[in-house]
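Example record

Each entry pairs one chain with its bound ligand, 6-O-phosphono-beta-D-glucopyranose.
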Amino acid sequence: SLHEGENGFPFVTLQTAAGASAKIYLYGAHVATFKDSKGRDHLFMSSKAEFKQGKALRGGIPICWPQFGPGKLPQHGFARNSTWQLNDTKVEEGVTSATFLLKDSEETKKVFPHSFELHYTVELKGDEMNTVFLVKNCGSDAFDWTGALHTYFNVAAIDSTSVKGLKGFTYVDKVQDAKEFEEKGEDIKFTSQLDRVYLKGASNDVHIQDTEGTEKVTFSSWKDVVVWNPWVEKAGGMSDLGEGEWKKYVCVEAVQVSDVVRLEPQQSWSGTYAFSKL
Ligand code: BG6
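Structure tokens for the complex follow.
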């Protein structure tokens, strides 16, 4: 069932018998919290997130689609700024889930003249959150898209956090003129703004380790992994981020950008992305 949140933004709550829960807004099909049965919220939400049409919520899991990053469309596309429908909620043995739907509309056709459906399922399986993201071309022409599940993970302190599992992958460094490098280290550490697209990095599990534990992140179909923290200067320019909150999160995102996905009429693409504490 739907509840009314900040500024009247409706949200749904998922709950498992063991006590894990999630809060998901219809706006953006935005997962804002995921608390496991021990009460730990795996996701970061900004204390200054703005609940306003046309503005993305800062934190949680924004869905970037049909464009990741800057380009013809507004930054990160329109899915995160659109109100989705709640299609279905299910409680089955050990799994509680909700499926959200976004279809083309007059609004979306102005900027993206294609007919599509996005089906996004969020599942709580014990203390794991699993997502299934499906894109379907419902029109009669092919279209291309890029996208991401732009997850903000809570960390105890960014300067004692490391991201593991990306050694040997090539990355595009967005803070160094989009130059390509090979990741040499077992651990990615944070000492200044870090904004990298690890190409084909999603073929590995990624671990986010902080002083309190380790989050394991797994991917299928999604090819790339973006790792991002804005650090102090860039965070200063983000009006919807609370004071000092840049220290409290790291984004480890499931991304499809190095290969643009082309969908022929009636074709679909789906990818899964899941996380849990070790
Ligand atoms: C990241 C980009 O994925 O998203 C960053 O790599 C960007 O460059 C960040 O700043 C946040 O974007 P936005 O539009 O949500 O402020």
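The mean pLDDT is 97.
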